């Protein structure tokens, strides 16, 4: 171990996530795992993100570059396509300069772990003769779907109600990512997702934030086309991994978490009595949906801890917070992992973002699935039908989940038979996630192989 650490220290990875919370989180956690195995890591983010993040730990070195939008980040650009084009133009020059700066300072980089949302980072790695590593942040199931579309092997718009793709069970059109089942919606974001596969076959390694045993058939199929290795779940080690339980680095948060209020409130609640509610960092709910969710939470008559980002607060029903004080706490952001692992939490009403999904599976928290867009509908299908870790809240013809549906699903999980069944499965997934990261587990072995290869190439 000592010897490996010394050798590995010659390896220096630059880790370059797309600047959004759902991408920064898994790549920061992966960075921490690399560092634990002796690899030097520098995380790169944009000036804008850097100005706005809460650094809740400092175990990973941070460098910043300009994406050309230093004042507003992605929100300053007209759409994802404009943002990406500008980022590529400005950012690629800045990334090369950063590599040169690190080299001059005696810390040369020999590997770039890049987010395939920024495929040009691979070209920079190749041109600079560095190891190029793509890090996929979404499920492999979803990657298979995007891969087929990107290669023209899945014709759109869909003409059949059922979709048959290798590595996946038959799926209905409504289980496809939103860009497919709502054909024509967010074309710029869809292009960004498809762009992940534009040059990925040139990568030296493709790593994925998933657990092999969770998506076995999908990973096996995709690996025949693009050799890939699973390295997830990228959960902070203090929550899963005894080896690293003293690690107190919570990573980088774009939103300021209300840590003390959440913990104090949860500590006063009994085991399994609280519903935790969050739609992640990006989802924007319609006013009507927000209000139905609010009334549904109240109707369920359970305690709830609800994350409502500052930009969404005005959509809450008038006086809702004041009138629900006895039952609920509404905060603008929390440390989700602390909340999900708190024994008071018995259910998670979620938008089914991939990080939230993996986190809930890894901690065995039953879910009420309320997918909104992008990959969330596909994740929700797997949560409910294949992993059997939750119930999907029913949608009406307007695509809204009504209060009765919210309350019914919560009660079913908290008190009903479905809850009992899900709790049995929860144990299985929790064990599986932990074993994947334990020494000799599927993800740990893959990380070890990756590090050994890096060391061999950098010595
Ligand atoms: C986005 C997409 O929406 C999602 O579908 C895709 O899979 C990844 O990119 P986001 O919507 O933010 O991500 O959701 P999610 O993937 O769940 O990531 C949110 C992250 O923020 C999680 O790691 C979660 O733990 C964290 N979080 C969320 C907090 O720490 N505190 C909160 O209050 C809410």
Question: What is the element layout, followed by pairings?
Answer:
Elements: H1 2-8, E1 12-16, H2 21-36, E2 40-46, H3 47-52, E3 54-55, E4 61-65, H4 80-104, E5 111-114, H5 120-127, E6 131-136, H6 140-150, E7 162-163, E8 171-172, H7 178-181, H8 187-194, E9 205-208, H9 216-225, E10 229-230, H10 237-240, E11 252-253, H11 259-267, E12 274-278, H12 287-300, E13 303-307, H13 320-323, E14 328-331, H14 336-340, E15 345-350, H15 354-363, E16 367-369, H16 376-386, E17 390-392, H17 403-415, H18 417-437, H19 442-458
Parallel strand pairs: 1-2, 1-5, 2-4, 5-6, 6-9, 9-10, 12-13, 12-15, 13-14, 15-16, 16-17
Antiparallel strand pairs: 3-11, 7-8
Bound molecules: uridine-5'-diphosphate-xylopyranose (UDX).
Uridine-5'-diphosphate-xylopyranose is lined by residues 21-22, 25, 138, 278, 280-283, 307, 333-337, 353-356, 359, 374-376.
């Amino acid at each position: 171990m000592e010897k490996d650490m010394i050798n590995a220290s010659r390896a220096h990875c630059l880790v370059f996530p797309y600047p959004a919370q759902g991408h920064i989180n898994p790549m920061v956690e992966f960075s921490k795992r690399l560092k634990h195995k002796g690899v030097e890591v520098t995380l790169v983010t944009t000036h804008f993100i850097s100005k706005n993040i809460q650094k809740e730990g400092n175990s990973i070195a941070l460098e910043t570059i300009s994406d050309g939008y230093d004042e507003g980040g992605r929100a300053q650009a007209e759409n994802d396509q404009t943002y990406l084009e500008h980022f590529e133009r400005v950012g690629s020059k800045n990334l090369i300069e950063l590599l040169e700066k690190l080299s001059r300072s005696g810390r040369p980089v020999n590997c770039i772990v890049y987010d395939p949302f920024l495929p040009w980072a691979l070209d920079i790695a190749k041109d600079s003769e560095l190891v190029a590593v793509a890090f996929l942040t979404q499920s492999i199931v979803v990657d298979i779907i995007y891969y087929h579309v990107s290669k023209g092997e899945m014709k759109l718009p869909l003409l059949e109600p059922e979709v048959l793709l290798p590595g996946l069970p038959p799926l209905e059109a409504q289980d496809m990512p939103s860009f497919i089942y709502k054909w024509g919606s967010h074309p710029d974001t869809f292009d960004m997702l498809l762009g992940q596969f534009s040059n990925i076959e040139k990568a030296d390694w493709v790593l994925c934030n998933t657990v092999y045993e969770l998506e076995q058939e999908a990973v096996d199929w995709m690996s025949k086309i693009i050799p890939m290795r699973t390295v997830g779940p990228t959960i902070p080690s203090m929550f899963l991994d005894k080896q690293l339980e003293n690690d107190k680095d919570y990573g980088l948060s774009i939103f300021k978490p209300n840590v003390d209020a959440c913990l104090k409130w949860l500590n006063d609640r009994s085991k399994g009595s609280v519903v935790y509610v969050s739609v992640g960092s990006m989802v924007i709910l319609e006013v009507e949906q927000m209000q139905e969710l609010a009334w549904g939470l109240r109707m369920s008559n359970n305690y709830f801890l609800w994350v409502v980002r500052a930009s969404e607060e005005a959509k809450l029903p008038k006086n809702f917070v004041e009138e629900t004080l006895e039952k609920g706490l509404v905060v603008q952001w929390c440390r989700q992992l602390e909340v999900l692992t708190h024994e008071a939490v018995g259910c998670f009403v979620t938008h089914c973002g991939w990080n939230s999904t993996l986190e809930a599976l890894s901690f065995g928290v039953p879910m009420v699935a309320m997918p909104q867009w992008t990959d969330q509908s596909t994740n929700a299908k797997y949560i409910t039908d294949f992993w059997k870790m939750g119930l999907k809240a029913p949608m009406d013809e307007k695509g809204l989940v009504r209060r009765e549906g919210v309350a019914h699903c919560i009660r079913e999980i908290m008190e009903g038979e479905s809850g009992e069944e899900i709790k049995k499965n929860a144990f299985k997934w929790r064990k599986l996630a932990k074993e994947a990261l334990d020494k000799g587990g599927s993800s740990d072995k893959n990380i070890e192989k990756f590090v050994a290869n890096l060391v061999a190439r950098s010595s």
